[in-house]
Amino acid sequence: MTRQQVSDDAEALAVALAEARAGRAEGGVPIGAALVVDGEVLAVGRNKRVQEASPILHGETDCLANAGRLPASVYARATMVTTLSPCDMCTGAILLYGIPRVVIGENRTFLGGEHLLRTRGVEVVVLEDRDCIELMREFVAAEPELWNEDIGEE
């Protein structure tokens, strides 16, 4: 990925949303993420549970893996941008690496660990982005079994 500059949360979310759409086009769950530091997108990721037959490749964890090993000082300046509220696993990864800020496209479809993030001092911004909401609504309606598998429900 060629690194790119973003000037605000909306631009960063557009990068994550492009990843979500790419994942959906591959037959996967449409959740994307971007790791932004000092206005630069260091890495992107998307949910690849279907594509890679992986139980742990969510958008945020794929993004962190794509970023590679980074010093704590970089994570301390980072924002994790994700199209959907982060699940417990992704919330844990955000906390583990000390990422101080999370921008969420939407949390209507799924409400993840936002409360835990806030109680641990993470700034959480929910944009309620219409495109993110619509993408997830369409996906859940079309693939309820896959969605339930992704969130650990029957």
TrEMBL record:
SUPFAM superfamilies: Cytidine deaminase-like. One of its GO terms (molecular function) is tRNA-specific adenosine-34 deaminase activity. Coiled coil: none annotated. Pfam families: dCMP_cyt_deam_1. Keywords: Hydrolase. Residues 7-124 form the CMP/dCMP-type deaminase domain. CDD domains: nucleoside_deaminase. Its EC number is 3.5.4.33. It is an enzyme of class 3 (hydrolase). PANTHER family: CYTOSINE DEAMINASE, CYTOSINE DEAMINASE FAMILY MEMBER. This is Nucleoside deaminase.
